[in-house]
Amino acid sequence: MEPVNLDESFASFDETWAPRIAAELNDHAVKVAKFDGEFVWHAHDETDELFLVRDGRLRIEFRDRDDADLGPGDLLVVPRGVEHRPVALEPTEVLLVEPTETLNTGDAAESDLTHDPERLS
Amino acid sequence: MEPVNLDESFASFDETWAPRIAAELNDHAVKVAKFDGEFVWHAHDETDELFLVRDGRLRIEFRDRDDADLGPGDLLVVPRGVEHRPVALEPTEVLLVEPTETLNTGDAAESDLTHDPERLS
């Protein structure tokens, strides 16, 4: 039960689109992730997903509504089942809150971008 | 499905020890709260509770282990059932992640400090 520092967490890895578990509570986790450029279109049929931008600029595109533009300190919840595509307009640091086992690419076909969440070492 | 800005959220209220719901996902919420001084000893028997300090200095005291000292960017999960007392050493802004309906004073007797979580207006 030691505090985790977000700056140290983000400094501990470089890989983009590969969320790390920073902390777990109940069946949910706070994950830290680095985004850059375009991700894949996907949805999470079983869970809502919260994005909180720590640094950078994140656009979240939707099929059927206006894009959401998030800067530092902005958060957004994408409801379950809503197809979306994160696009980082510059190297961006993001906190995610979602069930621990949530796969980053959701219902999209597995690809090089698919990562099981891993714990911070 | 509009982004929420944390600076604006914290600027929208002054009351201490009265968490506001900034966003909800599944059965959990991200809440924003202002702490100052000593809170009451309590535990949450049904849920873990995550504290993330946005600004200020937060000490979390425990009955049976060393205190945890958190500054900006530090987060800590207090497991369910663990008695704790938050003490803000200066005016402090905190994000909480926990089930939406979690009562701030947990199993402590209801007092002037007890607040049902309310949504940001």
What does this protein structure show overall?
The structure is a homodimer of 121-residue chains. With 121 residues, the first copy, chain A, is mostly beta strands. Chain A has one domain (6-106): Jelly Rolls (Sandwich), CATH 2.60.120.10. Helix content of chain A is 5%, strand content 47%. Chain A has one helix and nine strands, in the order βαββββββββ. Chain A has one helix at residues 6-11; strands spanning 4-5, 20-25, 28-38, 49-55, 58-62, 68-70, 74-78, 84-99, 118-119. In chain A, strands 2, 3, 4, 5, 6, 7, 8 and 9 form an eight-stranded mixed sheet that branches. The longest helix of chain A is centred in the first third of the chain and has 6 residues, at 6-11. The radius of gyration of chain A is 13 Å and the shape is globular. The mean pLDDT of chain A is 96. The A-B interface holds A 1-7, 22-26, 28, 30, 47-50, 52, 65, 68-70, 73-79, 97-99 and B 1-7, 22-26, 28, 30, 47-50, 52, 65, 68-70, 73-79, 97-99. β1 of chain A pairs antiparallel with β7 (74-78) of chain B.
Describe the structure concisely for a colleague.
Chain A is mainly β. Chain A contains one helix and nine strands, in the order βαββββββββ. The model of chain A has no long low-confidence stretch (mean pLDDT 96).
